[in-house]
Amino acid sequence: MEAPPHFGYSPDMATIVRQAGFEIMIYSRDHEPPQVHVWRAQAELVVNLNPIEIRENNGMSPNDARKAITMVEEYQAELLIEWRRFHP
Q1: pTM for the whole structure
Q2: Which residues contact 21 (CB under 8 A, 6 or more apart)?
Q3: What is the pLDDT of residue 9?
């Protein structure tokens, strides 16, 4: 699988994927279970990584949520590796 199209890091969060108006982020001060925060505009979707499931939806439309889940599925292996890097 190709590397995600964008990598960028800050002390508190990492943007692992930026694609089609979505940002998939890992927060360094987060907690188990492994999860990502998917942002689009002002909406956020919190997605558990294993198994992939929506944990929380903060204003994301059903259509955008489906797209976000598809992206998380596509990058699941890389996201889990990055999550473990931030949460050893």
Answers
A1: 0.85
A2: 40, 41
A3: 41
